[in-house]
Fold:
Amino acid sequence: MIDRRVEPLESFTQATIDLRVEQPISFVQATEVYATHPSVATLWRWALKGVQGIRLETVKIGGRRFTSIEALDRFASRLTAPRSPEGPNASVRRQQEMSRASEKAKATF
Structure:
């Protein structure tokens, strides 16, 4: 039987999990290890859709998705890191708004 499900490549992040250094763990194992015990569905959502433009790093091995404790730590630290409204995750619209506001402020003062 042929599996005809196709996952779009853009659905997942580029795997930055270094398998030489990091131990891959399944999503089920990640729910048991991670401090907040997120559900498997939550981990999938973090990998597919992300949170605030940040996605959980995963790697596909033998047809299954894995992450690592280090990837979970990187995900959490990226979410908690202070970000500028003009930073790389800001939308184009937001960047344009900030640029206009800055120009207006310079003209006023």
